């Protein structure tokens, strides 16, 4: 698991670089929020790597399970990338609902009501903040048009 944390942390740090450059193209202060979030994500990735280097030792046999622990984060990352591509094709809400359904099975959800409630509340929050308050188009024309 230690090497998995190091690999995932390094991949997150690598992914932050192009996202940082992309957020620099936003007009005025529109890039401030994405960049603040990217700083937090990069900081957490560094903490993840440092903890794997200097954290408490693993119990005997934990390294055997490390290969299996890497499968779930890779599936989540690939599913998220497909959802981002799906946003361009189908719009925001269909892609995010599809992401929620797929993640439910990938993460082997047991608390169905909690998962559905969390996804629904998150989508409603994003819609209110970005579409209603900030006027960001979320691709609703592809959903309804």
Radius of gyration: 18 Å
Number of strands: 0
- Which structural class is indicated by helix and strand composition? mainly alpha
Low-confidence stretches: none
Task: Label the overall shape.
Answer: globular
Percentage of helical residues? over 70%
By DSSP (H or I, 4+ residues per run), the number of helices equals: 6
SSE string, helix = H, strand = E? HHHHHH
Could you characterize the architecture of this molecule?
With 145 residues, this protein is mostly helical. The chain has two domains: 1-57; 67-145, no CATH class. 77% of the residues lie in helices and 0% in strands. The longest helix has 25 residues, at 66-90.
Q: Which characteristics define this entry?
A:
145 residues; 77% helix; globular
Topology (elements, then pairings):
Blueprint: H1 2-23, H2 32-54, H3 66-90, H4 92-106, H5 112-133, H6 140-144
In short:
The chain is an all-alpha fold. It has helices at 2-23, 32-54, 66-90, 92-106, 112-133, 140-144.
């Amino acid at each position: 698991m230690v090497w998995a944390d190091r690999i995932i942390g390094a991949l997150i740090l690598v992914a932050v670089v192009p996202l940082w450059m992309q957020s620099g193209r936003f007009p005025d202060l529109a890039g401030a929020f994405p960049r603040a979030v990217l700083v937090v994500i990069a900081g957490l990735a560094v903490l993840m790597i440092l903890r794997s280097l200097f954290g408490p030792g693993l119990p005997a046999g934990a390294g055997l399970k490390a290969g299996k622990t890497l499968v779930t984060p890779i599936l989540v990352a690939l599913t998220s990338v497909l959802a981002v591509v799906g946003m361009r094709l189908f719009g925001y809400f269909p892609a995010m609902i599809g992401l929620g359904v797929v993640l439910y099975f990938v993460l082997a959800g047991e608390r169905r009501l909690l998962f559905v409630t969390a996804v629904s509340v998150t989508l409603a929050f994003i819609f209110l903040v970005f579409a209603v308050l900030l006027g960001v188009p979320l691709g609703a024309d592809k959903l309804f048009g």
